[in-house]
Amino acid sequence: MKIFNLFLFLVLPLIGIAQSQILNGININAPNGFYKTGNLEWKKGNDIVGVASIPGKYSDTDFIASCENASRSSEYLDSGPIEFANGNTYTVCFQFGENDLVMGSTLVFKNNHTYIIQTGTYPGDYEEPNRINKSTEKLIYLLSYMTYRIENSFGQTDEEYFKRANAKDDAGDYLGALEDYNKAIEINPNAATIYSNRGLTKNSLKDYSGAIEDFNKSIEINPTNSYPYYNKGIAKYNLQDYSGALKSYNKAIDLDPNYTDAYFNRALTKAYLGNFIGSLMDSDYTIKLNPNYAQAYVNRGVAKLNTNDKQGACQDARKAQSLGYDASQLIKLACN
Length: 336
Hints:
Layout: E1 21-23, E2 26-28, E3 35-38, E4 41-44, E5 47-55, H1 60-68, E6 75-83, E7 89-96, E8 102-110, E9 113-121, H2 131-151, H3 158-170, H4 174-187, H5 192-204, H6 208-221, H7 226-238, H8 242-255, H9 260-272, H10 276-289, H11 294-305, H12 310-322, H13 328-334
Antiparallel strand pairs: 1-2, 3-4, 4-5, 5-9, 6-7, 7-8, 8-9
Helix pairs in contact: 3-4, 4-5, 5-6, 5-7, 6-7, 7-8, 7-9, 8-9, 9-10, 9-11, 10-11, 11-12, 12-13
């Protein structure tokens, strides 16, 4: 039965909005007169509307294949492209369901999610002839309405939440930033940078274990980025897991051999573990990469002081002081 030539374009008036629900940060609304029967499910008489979502983009090809392989409780009717009232063309699938219900479904891609819109109606509500065609016309009406609501939702994108979270973090509003990072991840759970930045915010909130979880997730998504390894090293250092911190800094340096801050922090960690020769070597390389890194001279001065090079420690302390860093404590120990 080919029905798509009958309903290639329907101009549908917008009607009132039922109570909305939030999905992936956007408002989902059913037509006026529909009442909630479950999470993201609405009903009016024998007409039903439901919405689900999956991360990423579900292809029309897979959608049609799934439609054609009807389950035991449904029977494939037809599928194909239909132009809706918003002027966009959508792939629609029609099936017969239980109790002679006629069902229609389509896909909308928004905010890195595929929204699956499902509708149903009962042909017995319509008089012959052409009960099926009248049923599918009603389904197209409902599908067109729902696609319009999702496409024109006022919900923010993951990028908008991400930018706002960054601004809040910069302003010191870490709890506000955390809330927006959470919303961005809800919309886009596969963005390595969002997890990485949320980890930094958790570090600022002293939730070091939570920060490490986020850095690990960022690494899982993009294992070639050195920054999450470096930041995980800081979190581990703050948890006094100095060996773990050292491993994270090592990995960051493997990925970026000129990562100045990673060498600096590794030097500091090695010194804390009593490896002053290793700390001295890392401080040397930090200064080679950035000759004006005042704190690196302090690191190196401490390492020299602990390897019986008091004169060298004094020189480094005075150099740090000349670069604007308060090295008075090291000067007192090394230069007297």
